[in-house]
Amino acid sequence: MALSVGTKMVLGLALVGSVGYLALSDTGQGVLEYVYVEQVVDRPEDFADRTIKVHGTVVPGTIRQKRGSTGDYRFVIEHAGKRLSVHYTNLVPDTFQEGGEVILTGRLSADGTVFESDEMTAKCPSKYEEEQGVDLKETR
Amino acid sequence: MAERRSHRDLRWWIAGAVVFLATFAGMVLVGGVAPDAATAGLSVAAASLVHLVARLFSVAEALARSEAEAVAMAGTGLARSTYRELLEEKRRVLAAIKELDFDHAMGKLSDADHRSIRARYERRAAEVLRALDEPASLHPWARALAETGRIPGEPEGGTAATEPSTPLRACPSCNGANDADARFCKHCGEKLAT
Amino acid sequence: MPISTLGTLAVVLVFLSCIATVAFSVRGVLLRSERWVEAGVQALHATFAAAAFASALLVYAFLVGDTSIQYVAHNGDPAMPVFYKVTAFWGSLDGSLLFWVLLSSLFASLAVAANRHRHRELIPHAVAVLGIITGFFAGLIVFMKNPFEPFLLEVPSKGRGLNPLLQNAYMIVHPPSLYLGYVSMAVPYAFGMAAMITGQVDDAWQRSVRRWVLFSWLFLGVGLVLGGLWAYEELGWGGYWAWDPVENAGLLPWLTCTAFLHSVMVQERRGMLKVWNLVLVIVSFLLTIVGTFLTRSGVVQSVHAFGEDPALAWTFGAFMLVIVVASFGLLVRRLPLLRSRGEMESIVSREFAFLVNNWLFLSAALFVLFATLYPTLREWAGMFVEWAARRWPATFGGIEPPTRVTIGPPFFNHWMRPVGLALLFLTGFGPLVAWRRTTPANLVRQFRMPLVVGSITIAVPAAFGVDSPWGLACFGLCGFTFWTIVQEFVRGVAVRRRNRPQPVWEALLGLFVRARRRYGGYMVHLGVVLMFLGFAGKSYDLERKVTVHPGETVQLGKYEVRHDGLRATTDWQKDMITADLTILRDGEVVAQLHPARWWYFQMPEQPTTEAARYMTIAEDVYAAMQDADMTTGWTRLALFVNPLVNWVWIGFVVMLIGGLVCIGTRREQLTDRVGGGHRG
């Protein structure tokens, strides 16, 4: 005696229901678009009101930090000749430095000129290859 | 045979250890090298080189053997291993029956299920025990091989059988199956032509 | 002869020996010749010997500091302690491939020696498959990534040293442990393939491999947990699991191994799920290769890393394709032999619980795999569109290439949390229901108490102010499952004592001795419950980022953290700044914490964070120093209270012990001796 059709249908519905619920309740929080500086600068309207990741190089000499505050930085990142001002409000990872590559998570300000970010992944200029696949960049 | 082989393995291990100590002692005492980690590392490398040579020698030895010799060596291993496998099977079936009773006692199995599954295991246990009691207990496949000439579940032209190179021969007087190289029938004791 | 030449010869010998292994075994099979089969087996042993020799040479090169070898120059440093010099062997790509080959040939050699006379028909096939797998990696070494490659022009005088981040006890054990797990999966796969080639797809092959899968599963688990501990203590962000591609790569085969360990039981008892078991072994092996690939090639981290070594990536890709085609091709060919003996009868049955467990594990593995690879796949699609647009502007010119995306922890958590909780539920539910079907009366009898306990464990945290529904569900299921395990033990002991009066401890011990696998399994489940308890704690953790000067105190939940000052020190490899913190609770000093930042001389521009924590059973107070100024003394700290986090590690230890109980001792030898005596 195998499972009855009714049982199978109930099981199928439960499966579809739970997957559907998960899909609907997914706010897309973890999935972020990943763009380079020039894409944002060229078309800021495309990225308004959304959390995105921006990849660029920290322009040397532009890092300004509010002394004594818990991470309040302003700096400029560039890529492919375009530049973008960043206001970063969090602790910086160990690997953050001038001339280094960073990937910032955040949103564009209302006027589209400043990128407000509070999460950063910084790459070191690869002096060490990524041995062991250890994610040297990982930080919160 | 298996014992002899494992003894030989042991000999190689001892040889490796001796080479390690000899290299280490020789370099420190004769060569005047510091007894540091690098020296130990070199000694390990030397020992593993000896092991490598031994292993390569074993390959050559295996290739140099005649087919008949290889089969004979494999055969003795087979008899032992079949016996061991049967013992293991016995242990497993008995354990399964115990576990089944236990499940039943804990109320996880209906009476009817318990009866039918237990019966199946009991049949299997009986088979295994009978096979163990036979003096030349045979692996089920080996038995099937003797009876049908092929291993169950193996499709035609399959490549599995390495044993068929030991054809079984029938005794002229009692018609019992004997090994190819047997000189006397193991069933009636009649002398077999060689 | 320089080490580089000798070593290169040794790795070439490994490669040739693999080829010989495969050639001899195939010839043995084709000619049905015992002699060639034996030669193949011996060649497999010789492969291991050659790999051991090559490895010994490489370690020696590190110990003696032979910087004429590129790999040694890049990863060795005469100033490193001996221990790190030895472990530098697998510190980077080329050496780790040699380590792979060493382990793979060792396991192949052991597995074949153990089964040489047990499943004779399978042996030559298994040997050939193992030879191919080892040979692939040996080939990578010989043709692409030879760790013995010498410098062609000038020889640097001093090595650069092992990456300081990896000079850490966890990091020394973590990669080899994952490696042991990855590599040992090749054995079950080889026996599974041998079973399919010979057509002997019944249970014999599984008997040879169940222990190996368990072994693989254990080491993958150890590797994953140590990786988590490392991240927790070294990276300073207060967590242990970030769904990072490298972590995921280890998790995937662990998930499918777990599924396999459950579904073999169904095949043993009911003769069902035969195809499924083979699929699981194939998929697990494939995932270990994918894992090696992901961690070794840098494909996922960045498209640029991929660009650096496309040849390696393509070779891996081709190898994986061959595995997929060969394995599933064989499986399809053998489908008629794999027909199931039993049938599913009710959804309230043990086999159905197992089946759902398997679906969940496999779909979790595939989901994580896809989500891990998705950004890379999308990137490739983008590259393809760009390339096509250049090539055929007319057709593809107008198409916008897809933008790149990243997938972060929130996405994984969203999808995996319910799967994890469903599995936790099954952990409690499965072992209590009967095979075939369970009567409603029995169901009530089995689940009345666990449900009561589950409700209590929801109500109590809720009363204490935990308001996350997932957290509460997790607590409830932990209570439920915990009680089902307790109940199993209590009833088991009761049955034993009813059969024969004996003390409780003896009955308990008897359970473990008599039904090692079952009660070992329950212990693993207990470990799972404790780990989930740790995960549940995450739902009410606390995090603060503050700037403090010496003498100041900050509030952190019910704790106070006082900054007592900064210290600057130096040792042979680094400068250190250490903060002295005092943790107070209700005005009482409970602990001193010393978070620090280290600047290694080798990479002064990239300091490392050394977190410190105050551990209790209930929670951790965790402090990481983000920045410090020696002149003014201001210090930026990340402070966390991580409730129940230590239960993750405790649970894992319980799980490990349970797993070892399942693997058990070699009881056969004992039986053999007894049996042998009886026979004589």
Please characterize this protein's 3D structure.
In chain A, strands 2-4-5-7-6 form a 5-stranded mixed barrel. Chain A has 2 helices and 7 strands, in the order αβαββββββ. Helices cover about 20% and strands about 35% of the residues of chain A. Chain A is of the alpha+beta class and about 140 residues long. Chain A has a domain of about 90 residues: Nucleic acid-binding proteins (OB fold (Dihydrolipoamide Acetyltransferase, E2P)). The longest helix of chain A is centred in the first third of the chain and has 21 residues. By secondary structure, chain B is mainly alpha-helical. Chain B has 3 domains: about 60 residues, no CATH class; about 70 residues; about 30 residues, no CATH class. Chain B has 5 helices and 2 strands, in the order αααααββ. Chain B has a two-stranded antiparallel ribbon with strand order 1-2. In chain B, a hairpin with a 6-residue loop joins β1 and β2. The longest helix of chain B is centred in the middle third of the chain and has 39 residues. Chain B is flat and about 80 Å long. Chain C is an alpha+beta fold. Among the domains of chain C are: about 170 residues; about 110 residues, no CATH class. Chain C is built from 22 helices and 11 strands. In chain C, strands 3, 4, 5, 6, 7 and 8 form a 6-stranded antiparallel beta sheet that branches. A 4-stranded antiparallel beta sheet of chain C has the order 2-11-10-9, with no helix packed on it. In chain C, a hairpin with a 2-residue loop joins β3 and β4. In chain C, α10 crosses α14 and α18 packs across α19. The longest helix of chain C is centred in the middle third of the chain and has 42 residues. Chain C is globular. Chain C starts with a helix and ends with a helix. The interface between B and C is large, with 65 and 68 residues.
